[in-house]
Design a protein that fits this description.
about 100 residues; single chain; about 70% helix
């Protein structure tokens, strides 16, 4: 269930976002476009790391259940979604 992206994929997404920002006349930015690209790249990496941490926390909660819940089962999926949503809510975010 983990969302892993290669460095090339993150670079590609960064390029798409920065290209959009440059072409969109409604977006006004200041600073060097290289710096903006750098920040966008690291924002994507930070979000991926956050979701990885949330997944890990949700999986740990499932494993600590008294009942053995097999990964991939309907019950596991429901609990995973519930615990992931709880972890995001702690951070003030929604899924």
């Amino acid at each position: 269930m983990s969302l892993k992206l290669s460095k090339n994929r993150v670079n590609y997404l960064t390029k798409l976002i920065v290209d959009y920002l440059q072409k969109n006349e409604d977006v006004d930015y200041s600073g060097d476009i290289g710096n903006i690209r750098f920040k966008v790249y690291h924002l994507i990496l930070d979000e991926l790391k956050l979701f990885e941490d949330i997944e890990t926390a949700a999986q740990e909660k499932i494993v600590t259940q008294k009942k053995n819940i097999p990964e991939g089962s309907r019950e596991w999926e429901i609990l995973f979604r519930k615990y992931s949503t709880e972890e995001l809510a702690k951070l003030g975010r929604i899924w």
